[in-house]
Amino acid sequence: MAVRADLNISLDGYASTTDQTPENPFGEDWGRLVAAYTATRTFRERVLGDSSGEGTTGVDDRYGAAYFENIGAEIMGAGMFGLHNFPDDRDWRGWWGEEPPFRCPVFVLTHDADRDPIVFANGTEFRFLAASPDEALALATDAAGGEDVRIGGGVDTVRSFLAAGLIDRLHVGITPILLGRGQNLWAELRGLESDYTVTSEVAESGVVHVTFARG
Amino acid sequence: MAVRADLNISLDGYASTTDQTPENPFGEDWGRLVAAYTATRTFRERVLGDSSGEGTTGVDDRYGAAYFENIGAEIMGAGMFGLHNFPDDRDWRGWWGEEPPFRCPVFVLTHDADRDPIVFANGTEFRFLAASPDEALALATDAAGGEDVRIGGGVDTVRSFLAAGLIDRLHVGITPILLGRGQNLWAELRGLESDYTVTSEVAESGVVHVTFARG
């Protein structure tokens, strides 16, 4: 069992964007940040439900596919689920429609945890809880039944698990653009590499995949 | 004629370090930041004057060798020359001993420009001036006689030339460590990539070489 996280970041370390509008809740920068990932066949199949077989199949797709392998439970922050965008909508069911790509229990960390679980036919089940990283990880590990636990995001949720020393493998896809604003993955993580072996690989798209792996 | 800059930075963007002491004027972080470069055969030959042929000869060395090719003049900041460390030493001749690795005119930008040029037998000549990036580049271009001009550093000098749109090719060697402090190359450079083609390559050492090239 390993605890894993994957993020797309800019060359200057930003994993979140700040140009969101009500009409474009992810913002234009977000599209540029994740363009190589959303072009992959895995993303199209697994997140968009596109079974045409279209999409890129190179290095980016290999990382995209690995993202979905052997995950038994996920932990995400309230922002990634959308609670910051729709705090008063008690019927909000996440961004992903009726086929969320998780297919496992997903623990959503929120102070507003008095929400019923949301269960989907494909195995995805969102559960809401107010908990520390350690507490949430204990629950998710139990739910994962021996498979890996993914810390899905957003960036401050991943950072809190990194700071607590709870992540065994961190993969970042670095898009060679400079955003200059947002939340920086690397802030306050001086010396993180000392607990990991770090390897890098450049994809055909120009994205640089950097992996921090323990041991 | 192209204007070029090369820097070693950490994964979180820091190109300068903050743990300097009088005994160790570069600091321990600096040694970690440039370890792959200082291990190259080119660095050992060209900067240390070691003609033994020892040192690495892979991707890092290729970039190291390119650093010295076709340079007709260099511009550097006062800090890189050492004026911030030894402001009152009028006999200070730089960090590099009597064989500075430049072998061309080097324009040192300083408000304390009332200093005589320092001429070395190997072609290196330090000249001191108070000038804007544009003014300094005009002088350096003239001195370079058709060869390239290198913006040598430190990081704020390179950043000022980048911000002024004066750099044709920027190469950064990204060492996969997180320093968490110092001067960040990427600060306030949002959108820089839009003027360049960006390519990346991973060296045997694990350093990721990223190049911004115009056109």
Automatic annotation (TrEMBL), chains A, B:
<dbReference type="Pfam" id="PF01872">
    <property type="entry name" value="RibD_C"/>
</dbReference>
<dbReference type="GO" id="GO:0008703">
    <property type="term" value="F:5-amino-6-(5-phosphoribosylamino)uracil reductase activity"/>
</dbReference>
<dbReference type="GO" id="GO:0009231">
    <property type="term" value="P:riboflavin biosynthetic process"/>
</dbReference>
<protein>
    <recommendedName>
        <fullName>Bacterial bifunctional deaminase-reductase C-terminal domain-containing protein</fullName>
    </recommendedName>
</protein>
<feature type="domain" description="Bacterial bifunctional deaminase-reductase C-terminal">
    <location>
        <begin position="3"/>
        <end position="184"/>
    </location>
</feature>
<dbReference type="InterPro" id="IPR024072">
    <property type="entry name" value="DHFR-like_dom_sf"/>
</dbReference>
<dbReference type="InterPro" id="IPR002734">
    <property type="entry name" value="RibDG_C"/>
</dbReference>
